[in-house]
Amino acid sequence: IEGHIALTKQGTAGFGYDPLFVPIGYQQSFAQLGMDIKNQISHRARAVKQLADYLKQLNS
Predict the structure, then answer these.
(1) Beta bridge partners of 22
(2) Which residues of 18-34 are buried (b: 16+ CB within 10 A; e: fewer)?
(3) What ranges in 1-60 are assigned the alpha helix state H?
(4) What local confidence, expressed as pLDDT, does residue 6 receive?
(5) How far is CA 15 from CA 20, 39, 44, in A?
């Protein structure tokens, strides 16, 4: 996922870089956005969706 690194930590949720990473299109860090939004837009969420779509094609 694309975004930028904030100069100061923002928010207390999440772990690792979550308080510092602000995804493109958002004004808040992952730590401020919360797990629901993070899990919808993160690179991991995108990878899991692509895998699920691929597996569905195999079973069609």
Answers:
(1) 4
(2) bbbbbbeeeeebbbbbe
(3) 30-33, 35-41, 43-58
(4) 96
(5) 10, 13, 15
Indicate the pTM of the whole model: 0.73
What is the distance in angstroms between the CA of the first residue and the CA of the last residue of the chain? Answer: 30
**pLDDT per residue as tens, the chain (60 positions):** 899 999 999 998 888 899 999 999 999 999 999 888 988 888 888 899 899 999 999 987
How many CB atoms sit inside 10 A of residue 54's CB? 9
- Locus of tokens 């699920």: 52
C-alpha 56, offset from chain centre: 23
